Amino acid sequence: MSNVRLLVRISVLGWLFALGVLAHNAEEALFLPQWSASAGLWHPLVAAAEFQFAAAVLSLVVILCAWAASTGGARSLGAYLLAGCALAMVLNVFIPHVLATLWLRTYVPGTATALAFNLPLGGWLLWRAITEKFVQPSVFAWSGPLTVITIVASVPALFATGRYLSIHIGR
């Protein structure tokens, strides 16, 4: 076992990844709603309250997945969900952040934290989870993409819920 593996247990790496996602979601919650007004096809116009609600819920999900993975251990439901979240966030670095930043030739909110935290921590978590059999590759081959699809599909519903709450409760 390498020195790095001894220093950073996979459960600790899962928590570090979750903290990186929190930083990323905070950056987006602060700056993305205003940016979305000029994003065109890259991002629909989204109000601050609805985006912040979605970011908060997704942040809570990642924290719960890190907790479930650290308490459930290898090959637990939490391990697969956390690895799926890591896959989603690594893909999110490139689509839309890096791609939109290059295409639009302007900074897209979330790109810095995606590159600084989500890519290295998510990539390291995925590599460790697979190579150390924290997740079985054959199961992760379908559970990882399924988690990504579920997260992406939940975003419009989270925006709608945030919009509803901001209208009916945020008066």
How would you describe the overall organization of this protein?
With 171 residues, the chain is mostly helical. It has one domain. Helices cover 81% and strands 0% of the residues. The chain is built from six helices and no strands. It has helices at 3-7, 10-36, 48-72, 77-104, 111-131, 137-168. The radius of gyration is 17 Å and the shape is globular. The model has no long low-confidence stretch (mean pLDDT 93).
Q: Helix content range of the residues, please?
A: over 70%
SSE order in H/E notation?
Answer: HHHHHH
- Poorly predicted runs are none
Integer-rounded radius of gyration:
17 Å
Number of domains: 1
Proportion in β-strands: under 5%
Q: Number of DSSP helices?
A: 6
**Would you tell me the overall average pLDDT?**
93
Distance between the termini: 56 Å
The outline comes out as: globular
Q: Which secondary-structure class do the elements indicate?
A: mainly alpha
SS elements, strand count: 0
Largest sheet composition: none
Write the layout of secondary structure elements.
Layout: H1 3-7, H2 10-36, H3 48-72, H4 77-104, H5 111-131, H6 137-168
Helix pairs in contact: 2-3, 2-5, 3-4, 3-6, 4-5, 4-6
